[in-house]
Design brief:
Elements: E1 6-12, H1 25-36, E2 42-48, H2 64-69, H3 75-89, H4 108-120, E3 122-124, E4 147-152, E5 159-164, E6 178-185, H5 188-191, E7 201-203, H6 211-221, H7 224-232, H8 241-264, E8 266-268, E9 277-281
Parallel strand pairs: 1-2
Antiparallel strand pairs: 2-4, 3-4, 5-6, 6-9, 7-8
Helix pairs in contact: 1-4, 6-8
Length: 282
Amino acid sequence: MQLTKIMFGCIYVPPENSRYSSKDAFDEIETELITLKDQSTATALLGDFNARTGSLCDYIIPDDELSKILNYDGIDEIDRCLYDYHYNLCLYNVPLQRSSEDKGRINVYGNKLLQLCKNNCLYIANGRIGNDKNMGKVTSKETSLVDYLIVSGDLFPYITEFEVIDFDSLFSDIHCRLQFNLSSMLPDDLLDKNNSPNVPSKHIRWIGDKRDQFVDSVESKLTIDNLSNQLDTLDITNENFQTDLNELVESLNKVFLDSAIENFGNKPAKISRNSKQSSTMV
């Protein structure tokens, strides 16, 4: 199957029982998925779900005969899940049963996330692929797995790397980073643009030796007091709240991106004519 459009969703669900939590959070995510599903051929959700799922099943192996007996009319969904199981998982050696180092209690959000996956033929990548295969490393406080990459089965053949990076306080207070590579076949006509001056640039990966310089660059562009003042001006009751929030997020992104370019530089993206393959770091 050729992927033409991939829908990426960056997720943050506030912790259960916190002042910002919502019992409808996962229903809202599912509603968005259903609304946008016709605009993409594959889905990837990435972020902090604050959901502890242990190693419980995130899938249902559909029984075609039973569905016919029960007169279930969701034939398209049955066919899709069967295709995922027999082709995208089995053929590419992706274990149906995932692993997890999180042995803690499954929380309410965990059960909601598992149901979200089952309803939409999505799979948790943690503990199934890459360097995390048969592991399912914890991602928060060295005890819980709450940060996930969740994908439709169509994406498994294209994920060349996946791992949970060791905790680094520079990036988060308690969370580990997730790192994965996607590889896609490129049409021939794109290869002719390799020497174009408009070819997109690809930022160099993190250089540990320049960590302090990067931090200094960020701090020179944005102070905590300044950020606090900007947050204080946000008014959730204002009709322009979402626009103001988006602009603030964009400005923060620019600070980190500009600082990265200053210290790590950038280089032209290279496209191999032989393999017609490109890797993307997310």
